Amino acid sequence: MELDRFVEWLDGYGEAWGGGNPEAAVALFSDEIRYFETPFDEPMSGKDAVYRYWREGAGESQRDVKFEHEAMAVVGNQGLAKWRASFVRIPSGNRVELDGFLVAEFDGTGKCATFREWWHRREVDGAPG
User: Fold this and answer.
1) CATH code at 65?
2) What's the domain range around 60?
3) Pairing verdict, β 112-124 and 95-106
4) Does a structural domain hold residue 129?
5) pLDDT tens digits for the chain (129 residues)?
6) Total domain count for the chain?
């Protein structure tokens, strides 16, 4: 994995999230993806599980998503990045801000095979507008 290719992958990740597009998100991952949303949860395994996660989250429960990233390094087949995101929860109208770090391990085809993230959340009642 090269740094510029990792940045392109992160851009695609942000576009998929911002567009609420689970199909575009799943296209970034290998068929055997192991997706760790938090370090203490069991990973989601396979594209079907990741699709459901993205559909229920970004696709159905979030709007006005903004995502930014900073690729920190590429070491072998792993990319490391800081990221920030914000969105409005559709059910509650609350504004959510996330600040996180991710490690993405890629297979030989450029698809992410293992995805791990760590993040903190701040949620504010009743987002404006």
Assistant:
1) 3.10.450.50
2) 3-124
3) antiparallel
4) no
5) 999 999 999 999 999 999 999 999 999 999 999 999 999 999 999 999 999 999 998 889 999 999 999 999 999 999 999 999 999 999 899 999 999 999 999 999 999 999 999 999 999 887 555
6) 1
